[in-house]
Specification:
The complex is a heterotrimer of chains A (788), B (279) and C (160).
Chain A lengths: L22 H5 L15 E7 L5 E7 L8 E2 L31 E2 L5 E7 L2 H10 L1 E6 L25 E9 L10 E13 L7 E7 L4 E6 L4 H12 L6 E4 L15 H10 L6 E4 L2 H7 L2 E13 L5 E11 L11 H9 L9 E9 L14 H19 L3 H8 L8 E2 L5 E2 L4 H11 L2 H10 L6 E13 L3 H6 L9 E7 L5 E5 L8 H13 L6 E4 L17 H28 L7 E3 L2 E4 L2 E4 H10 L13 E6 L7 E13 L6 E11 L6 H21 L29 E6 L16 H4 L1 H12 L9 E2 L3 H17 L1
Parallel strand pairs in A: 1-12, 8-29, 10-11, 14-15, 20-21, 27-28
Antiparallel strand pairs in A: 1-5, 2-4, 2-6, 3-5, 7-15, 8-13, 9-10, 9-12, 13-14, 16-17, 18-26, 19-20, 19-25, 22-23, 23-24, 26-27
Chain B lengths: L6 E3 L4 H10 L3 E4 L5 H6 L7 E4 L9 E3 L3 E5 L4 H5 L10 H7 L4 H4 L4 H7 L5 H8 L3 E6 L3 E6 H4 E3 L2 E2 L6 E8 L6 E6 L9 E6 L8 E5 L6 E2 L1 H9 L5 H15 L5 H19 L4
Parallel strand pairs in B: 1-3, 2-3
Antiparallel strand pairs in B: 4-5, 5-10, 6-7, 6-10, 8-9, 11-12, 12-13, 13-14
Chain C lengths: L1 E7 L2 E7 L5 H8 L18 E4 L2 E4 L12 E3 L8 H12 L9 H15 L4 H7 L11 H20 L1
Parallel strand pairs in C: 1-5
Antiparallel strand pairs in C: 1-2, 3-4, 3-5
Classes of the chains: A alpha+beta (788), B alpha+beta (279), C alpha+beta (160).
Amino acid sequence: MAAETTPDGVGQWVGKSLPRKEDKRHLAGASTFIADIRLPRMRDVAFVRSPVAHGRIQSVEIPEEHRRHVFVLADLQPLVPIGGGPEMATFRNVAYPPLADGKVFFVGQTVAMCIGRNRAGAEDIAAEVFVDVEEQDAVIDAIAALEGDAPLLHEGWPDNSFIDAVISEGDIASVADAPVKVRRRLKMNRQATNPLETRGVIAYRDHRLDELVVYSSTQGPHVMRHGIALALGMPEHKVRVIAPDVGGGFGGKNRLMPEEIALAALAMKVDHPVRWIEDRNEHLIASVQAREHHYDLTLHATREGRVLGIEGSVHVDAGAFALWPSGPFMETGMAARNLPGSYTVEHLQIRTHTVATNKAPIGPYRGVARPGACFAIERMMDELADELGIDPVEIRRINLVQPQMMPYRTAGGLRLDNGDYPAALDKALAMIDLPALRERQRRGEPDGRRLGIGFAVYTEQSGHGTVEWVKRKSRVVPGYESATVRMMPDGTAHVLVAIQSHGQGLETSLSQIAAQELGMDPAAILIRHGDTGVSPQGFGTFASRSIVFSGGAVAKASRKLAAKIRRIGAHLLQVSEADVELRGSCAHGGSGSVSIAEIARAANLRPEMLPPDTRPGLEATETYEPPESGGVFSYGVHAVTLLAHPVTGVTEILDYVIVEDCGNLINPKIVDGQIIGGVAQGIGTALYEELSFSENGQPIATTFGDYMMPCATEIPSFRIGHMVTPAESTEFGVKGMGEGGAIAPPAAIANALNDAFRFCGAWFFETPMTPRRVSDAVVAALESEAAA
Amino acid sequence: MKPALFDYVRPESLSDALALLRDDEGATVIAGGQSLLPMLNLRVTAAEKLVDISRLHALQGTNDDGTTVSVGALVTHAAIEDGLHREAFNGLLQRVAAKIAYRAVRNMGTLGGSLSLCDPSADWPACLLALDASVIAASADDGEREIAMEEFLVDAYTTALESGELLTRVVIPRRPMARWGVSKVTRKSGAFADSLAIAVLGDGDLPTRVALTGIASCARLLIRTSGILDEDREATAATLAEAIREDIVEVHEDVTPYQLRCHHHTVSTAITEAQSWSK
Amino acid sequence: MVEVTLTINGEEETVVIDARDSLSDLLREKLNLTGTHVGCDHGACGACTVHLDGTPVRSCIVLAARCECSDILTIEGTRNDAITDVVRRHFHDKHALQCGFCTPGMLMMAVDIIRRYRVPSEEQVRAELSGQICRCTGYMGIVNAIVAAADELDGQRATA
């Protein structure tokens, strides 16, 4: 690991690179993912899915011998249609039915479900169900979708827009006569989220507990419980959602999907458990999809390179439905509001269009909107630099928010809390040898490839609470998390939380926080999560929120419990409570000490040993929301050096430097892992991954043969430089950072390609920058140069 | 993503296998299965009956008679990658094998299977075309016949194998001094080739053979290009480039501008690499 | 229905299967050996990698019926294996896993890489891993862990 600096720890356990508790079961192949669960008499489900992108269902023909095992929407009733998206009158809403309701809106939409002895048997039945669809013209381009002659997806809508809005700050008219204008169109194409474990649902009725049990590979079991109960019209206390080991999510497992409702509803109809495990083909055509932003932007600037205003439009291709709870509008709003990025732009006016198309609905994916916004603004910055003949590093220096300006409210309305952005840029420069790279660039490569160096600056809003989510009109407001710390009679403890750890190592880092507050060893603490039957209310793991919210709740609950432990300890030691300190799993006071285990035994089993007026038991529950509800901002700079071949367009990353500041670190090793993993996904966005469609809406990438997932040969080693500006408003001064890595790579890599081919002026405004796109861009530039 | 139902038989001998193939037109041969099983899982292809030849002794092993090397159809990519007959082809087979898909796939995938499938992006057809190899096809009633690679490779997923015929061996003229070059463009490592060119320069009586794949049909020889390299040692770069372009346009119908550039690059690079070997 | 007899993790098993069952189906659904994960079911992600007669294969694209008389090693069979334990320890130390879904396949591949290369370079490890998808770690920890494990095992051999 090439961490240039490793921040000092901030406590005995907090700040330490503790090896992860999760590893043991995974390394033994002994974890329990949803497909590993075995229940008596469980049957597999396969879905019949729409073969066309848009059309009216004439009939669903089910062979008589299979009628008992095939279910359409009418068979699952009663169901309550629930719509997703913001709670706004101007947002056009239409419920996404668990199985098609008369019409199909994209290839892969669920039409019917089939129960088989095993998955192959279920697929055999599905293959014999014939869906007769009267095909209609498909809408596959978000910009053309709003033109007058575009076919309409949803009846009663005046056009194909979920919502149009204007994000405006300052007065864009005041910069109309700015001397420099740079206008570009950019596009970030559609992607799949592709956790290596696909989604999956198992549902059955537990008659003893009188509840519907839904196992789901989800990031947020409590919110899913609420959604499933709503959709089934069931009282929520009779629904239990369990997320077992979850094999990655990245946002793609944080929406209520039709399969979850369908399986839950089916379990109410049959007398055996039902299971559906999404296969990769289903994942690529019909799971939560992401990105697909179109930007048409104009920068207004001075001749010295200061950006005065950003103007233009953002179209987000949202697919056919708004996923519950939040829908796609947040994607559009965040894309627009993040355009000013880390810069002191004062005027912003962006028309936003959240557009319905005949594609699978979009949802969150690591970085949510910001990879697109960062790509757009950071590419525009380089374009402005090129226009003015200013160095790309210099143009950033001119425009970056300075530390003394913080907290700084951007033109996007985001409050950048603290940090030193110019210092991060300097640090990145210090980690590469730019003069040597420029010299190499001048010399050229023996194999004809071109060297390019690109930079991108990003910010990452994290840990935002009630006010921010209310501003986004979210119908579920994840403004807090809760934690219960429960100590056993022998002094070991469970911490019950409602986040869901699916790779983030929260079983380790949250135990470090509890251990810190309780003066215990993390080994004596188990984190329990992912089960609504176990955890207090909460929202799950997404939006880089878990360490801020759940970490804060664990700290608060642990502190509350620690106070009681000290009180009992003081009584047992016959000293005053103020003199008692918890460390090394003991309460120390005066000249003596008593083990926490002794105190726990007294509290749980020997009430006569307790001080007067002290209730028995050792358990505390707390909720937590950081006082600064607008969030705390991690930030960083990426510096990429790459080689690209002008003819084949093949790109190779030579060096990738990341400077980042996420405040204090609970577990530095886990933080580095999150950074690297995020950057790897960002490289996928930048160079490899794309869901494209034929003119009639047929998906092109339906297997890993067509959808390029980056592997160890595509992803380089990384060099990370940490800066630490503790957050002022959070417990331990932490900031969330799970998504940041994924935000900047498309921008940094595109800028590096721009740098590599600056000599001919090739344009890189669309991701992924596949070999074909790179080669075409270079040829187009050379041809226009020749023609000029 | 599970296959539809099929029957499965594993004949004990080559003659049993050939009899099965003769008697049952619905039978599909499976060897390593590394292409067939994904296609069956995706239900993009179906089989009534799979005839598993993966244990047939007669299709394993190799023989080098000093002039040609005969490679059993069941020899895996991994075995070749690990050095089988490296010297006989001056390392060319090894180089090609090592870049096919991924090791776990190469451990199962076979030379004969790859040729019989004739995927337009596969590596072996181009390589064996450049090496002027031929295949031995066997059938229950007609015995064996030898088919030159040019005739064997008909079109995408189409070979000259007739119903009831099984590819049993590949016969490759030894080229221990071969001067060769390989150039491949893929969207990522291990992915099927967008373009793959293999050049084997002429030597004595043996003519130069430059093969290209990643095209609409299947691997093809570049006739003009190969000819110029043999006949016109003084040919200018421009002449060669024009020959390459003409060849590509001829073998790749509806070639896009990008594909044309890519193919041109791989062909030129393969030739340059081949020419860089010391004689 | 087909009956196959094969050795799995050192134990002989006779299992009744469908002809269309893959080796991963046999392991997971018939024998409940769920440590072998299925990430794509079309041979493109490497999560289901097991050893068949000593070499790594993708169990989702190997027919179970073909494995008659074969010797299969899965992640469960490595739980007491000294070499895999060294690799495991380095995976743990180098943060080579996050969600853990790709991990069993990575370990099965890692052991084979070390067996074939003895002391592989970073570049060799990357090339050999190029068919194993990990969506979480960015591969760096995995690559470093395999290189370090190989070095340690080589040192053990040298001093043995």
